[in-house]
Amino acid sequence: MTWCSPPALRQAIVLRTAMLSLMAWSAFARPAFAERPAPDVAAGRAEYVRSCARCHGVEGAGDGIDAKRFYPRPRDFRLGIYKFRSTASGTAPTDEDLFRTVTHGLPGSNMPDWPHLDESIRWHLVEYLKSLAPIFQEAPAEPMAVAADPGKPHADLAKGRALYEKLGCAACHGPTGRANGSSAGGLVDDWGMPIRPANLAQGWNYRGGSDAESVMRRFLSGIDGAGMPSYAGTISPEDAWHLAYYVVSLQEPPRWNRIARATRVRGELPKAIDHPAWHQAERTDVRLRSVVTTAGEWAKAPTVTQVAFQVLYDEETLAIKLAWDDPTENTQGPADALAVVFKPAGLAGDVVTLQAWPHEGSSALDLWHWSAATKRAGETLSPNFDVITAGGQAAGIERSSAARYADGRWQVVLQRPLASPDLEGGAVLNPDELPTLAFAIWDGSHASERAVSPWIDVALRPLKPVQHAQE
Ligand code: HEC
Ligand code: HEC
Fold first, then answer.
1. What pTM was computed for the model?
2. Spatial CA neighbour of 43 closest among 130, 131, 114, 125
3. Phi/psi at 337 (nearest 5 deg)?
4. Which of 54, 58, 68, 75 most suits a substitution to test ligand 1, by most atoms within 8 Å of the C-beta?
5. Whose CA is nearest to atom 30 of ligand 1?
6. What is the pLDDT of residue 465?
7. Which residues pair with 322 in a beta bridge?
8. Most exposed among 86, 220, 348, 434, judged by the fewest C-beta atoms under 10 Å?
9. How far is the CA of 177 from the centre of ligand 2 (A)?
10. What's the CA gap between 259 and 256, in Å, rounded?
């Protein structure tokens, strides 16, 4: 870093660096807790029964009353197999590894974070977990030594990329990390459950931390039980950093906007995916979740975890471009499909979400849908998604669309009239209001695992700034 940058910029850099290092695994792996309490397994057990047993089971066997609802399943602690370690494959995690998992949880899985528990209670929990498996008594856990961090500016990304290919990361994680490698399908974990490689483009979804050191620890230590091998000994310490920074470079920072902003177009509204007009449109990313099944249980976690969308409009028409990662293109049988669902006025958003729709007696919603089977879009009012999952015809009024599947990603452009005079009871999008919509996405390979979004407001006109009283 040069020191001739203007003071403000320099301050910003220092601040950012401080924030980044705060976020890094290393900050948690260091024994930052001078006052770690004396081990108290009984206190750990008491908290465990209170907070953890419903998933991990009263005796730690991973068989709590809620366990069956989750993929991956809550860990069976008696086996001593841990995924997120700083230690060699097949060995126990360090106390700090466990402390970190308990504190931060495992994003992208159903393992919650517990930062609100007293620090001393979290240490007692760690002691209790260690009492459940013999592996902790066999040998003290040793973090693997790593070379000093060269820093991002000194990382050789081209070299990292070559290593990513050579070491076979791409075979599972896909050429650009979208979990679409040739060996990605059909993986089974040590507990006999299907497992998918992580989508490395979604840094927010990494369970063990998305910074370079965490990533490096993942491939040096391996992810025990998950079929992700350890690369310790097959890569030099310097190369490990090049590879780790390359993986970090695959992450696409999400834009979780609270309100999606549409852009008014003066010329022709784009129908094509590559139309330059899309460059003017703000992108909003939305996290997708699983649905509640009719039996009242959570369905399996969906393959599609995120959708990006952009909205353009003119006086008469609205165009939307969507992009989502799906490791396989399914155009026949149960096909990949999409529904943009409009929220009817007067529906309380926090009560009726797509996660619980359709349900018995649910009212009809306006479904603007597209299917990879027909490569056509339509719009209809329906009390359920049958019109979409049945594939085949574009139900209802036909709408214009364009679609492309490439490198593990669908891109779809749809257009519909703002007022929709052709569809009785269809959504009327008034630019002076905030139309509200949600998405449902199907991966044809796992047709029952529909991925749905919460309701999102779309601002067509620029939002007026709120006037604050002068102090
Ligand atoms: C709502 C369910 C749920 C609750 C409650 C829960 N867990 Fe978990 N936990 C999970 C799931 C699911 C996994 C497996 C995630 C994976 O494999 O990616 C997991 C994994 C873990 C792991 C394994 C990490 C590794 O490296 O493999 C630890 C440690 C853990 N939980 C500790 C706890 C503790 C301690 C509590 C209570 C304070 C707790 N969990 C409460 C669902 C839960
Ligand atoms: C045999 C298939 C396979 C290969 C080869 C493989 N991985 Fe993985 N990887 C997985 C699976 C499966 C997971 C998800 C584990 C889970 O969900 O518990 C994963 C997860 C990850 C994660 C995310 C961990 C987290 O924090 O959530 C990273 C980072 C990663 N792999 C990097 C790599 C790199 C780099 C390579 C090559 C050196 C590689 N992987 C090779 C299967 C593989």
1. 0.88
2. 125
3. -155, 165
4. 75
5. 102
6. 62
7. 309, 412
8. 348
9. 10
10. 9
Asked which of 250, 267, 302 is the last residue of a domain, the reply is: 250
In the predicted model, what is the mean pLDDT of residues 38-63? 97
d(CA 144, CA 129): 21
- Please, are residues 424 and 396 in contact by the beta-carbon 8 Å criterion? no
* Total domains present in the chain: 3
Task: Indicate the pLDDT class of residue 103, thresholds 50, 70 and 90.
Answer: very high
Q: How far is CA 379 from the centre of its chain?
A: 28
Task: Identify the residues whose C-beta falls under 6 Å from ligand 1.
Answer: 51-52, 54-56, 66, 70, 72, 74-75, 82-84, 98, 101-102, 106, 109-112, 114, 125, 129, 207
109 alpha carbon to ligand 1 midpoint, in Å? 9
In a 3-state reduction of DSSP, which class is residue 438? strand
Q: Which two tokens stand for residue 20?
A: 């980044």
At 29, phi and psi to the nearest 5? -75, -30
How far is residue 88's CA from residue 185's CA, in Å, rounded to a whole number? 27
For the CA of 226, the nearest atom of ligand 1 = 17
How far away, in angstroms, is 222 Cα from ligand 2 center?
A: 8
CATH number, domain of 279, equals: 2.60.40.1190
pLDDT at res. 449: 79
Q: Which range marks the domain in which residue 312 is found?
A: 259-459
Can you tell me which residue has the tokens 């249980």? 297
pLDDT, mean of residues 367-371? 95
Q: How far apart are CA 114 and CA 116, in angstroms?
A: 5
Which residues are bridge partners to 287 per DSSP? 306
Among 312, 346, 317, 351, residue whose Cα is nearest residue 459? 312
Angle between helices 157-166 and 237-250 (to 10 degrees): 90
